[in-house]
Amino acid sequence: xxxxxxxxxxxxxxxxxxxxxxxxxxxxxxxxxxxxxxxxxxxxxxxxxxxxxxxxxxxxxxxxxxxxxxxxxxxxxxxxxxxxxxxxxxxxxxxxxxxxxxxxxxxxxxxxxxxxxxxxxxxxxxxxxxxxxxxxxxxxxxxxxxxxxxxxxxxxxxxxxxxxxxxxxxxxxxxxxxxxxxxxxxxxxxxxxxxxxxxxxxxxxxxxxxxxxxxxxxxxxxxxxxxxxxxxx
Amino acid sequence: xxxxxxxxxxxxxxxxxxxxxxxxxxxxxxxxxxxxxxxxxxxxxxxxxxxxxxxxxxxxxxxxxxxxxxxxxxxxxxxxxxxxxxxxxx
Lengths: 233, 90
Description:
The complex is a heterodimer.
Chain A: E1 9-13, E2 16-19, H1 20-39, H2 51-70, H3 75-94, H4 108-130, H5 132-137, H6 147-180, H7 186-217
Antiparallel strand pairs in A: 1-2
Helix pairs in contact in A: 2-3, 3-7, 4-6, 4-7, 6-7
Chain B: H1 2-19, H2 21-40, H3 45-75, H4 78-89
């Protein structure tokens, strides 16, 4: 019984190892990128459109609306990064129905890599939006005493993102593995359904948390003037 | 050598059992409060539901940390692996 798909090794040469995590990650990337390329070959603007284009439009506009609801004013700037996070983690979870597949997010390497991407993206978008000085000054808010705590909270948020996703996906895979050695057919199937549900929820949580962190870093801190209310006579 | 095995198994059980009490109680309180506010303001149901899910995930993380520790103690225990390596080497 293995703890993560890192331990299934297909091929190794010296210190280079081709393990199941890498194979499934690249497989997912191929399917998602190739599928999107195929669907978006002939995009149509009118009413007549293929059902696949309709599906992609629903997904993209749904993610855009979610990003805007959290508080980012121009969602198209962040749609690439945040949408990819959500779609990759969701696809990794949903493909569990394929027999022989293990989600690559059940390995701490994948989730640590995704969390590091968020860790780099938050200052990047913050500096892009506010400039270097204002962004660095935001670490000293509300007082300068909070500076070490703000830095520690950045690091612990990243660690929490990685371990949360890893723990959820690993526990799902492990429960199914343990149950398959104990009980007959029906109970592992119910646990697989539960694993799909938690996988989708964790994908949503990961991307929403990344959105909230980016929104906190790019928030405009200048106080806005109060809008003048029109009072009908 | 058996002390390592006994300690690992006992602590793995205690970790996951004690570690799930707090998050379970907290999640119950969070959902109860969310239901109350949904009943008071059904218009804000999208925001309340989204905030509820984010909050539940944060609370669940604590239980997940305990679960990861107990899984490591059972399946990827470094002390037990060291003992096994020593016994195999003898």
